[in-house]
Amino acid sequence: xxxxxxxxxxxxxxxxxxxxxxxxxxxxxxxxxxxxxxxxxxxxxxxxxxxxxxxxxxxxxxxxxxxxxxxxxxxxxxxxxxxxxxxxxxxxxxxxxxxxxxxxxxxxxxxxxxxxxxxxxxxxxxxxxxxxxxxxxxxxxxxxxxxxxxxxxxxxxxxxxxxxxxxxxxxxxxxxxxxxxxxxxxxxxxxxxxxxxxxxxxxxxxxxxxxxxxxxxxxxxxx
Length: 223
What we know:
- Helices cover 70% and strands 0% of the residues.
- It has 10 helices and no strands.
């Protein structure tokens, strides 16, 4: 995958008709469950969750919703931003809304509370790697982006800027809004915001499923 382009756009029908579904469907589900689980690892570490988790925490504080349901509510709201970006939804978009928040809540119920600093650091490091890899895994299945990632892929196509730059810009903006709403941010939050884009871009090189007759969209202009 090019460092500046994302996999070609496909409608929901094209995504379902495309080949290699025996690999793509399990990859999609595994990536989404891993994404939701990794969010909880970061939250439980107490060292700083992802920007979107800070936003979800802020919304949860303001509305009284659980963290998982706040995550799902944000996902639905973000879909409105897809309209000007002309991003195409798919099976992955629907399952993202359903599975990420539920997986986060389930992981919160199952995971022990880390007591020592060493355990918290391990939770954070594992959560960061799992978050970025799981994001690339489900995107690489090519069943459409989730609401949050659709902002990234749509903006990459519209602006022609590199994935890492677009994703980092989005992460910083979301962090600022979440913090203003009362979400908890730490040094680790900034680490996640800065590392998310570059790591996802690198992981996509190996997780993107190649399809017959495949090609990559060219960016609108050089980054």
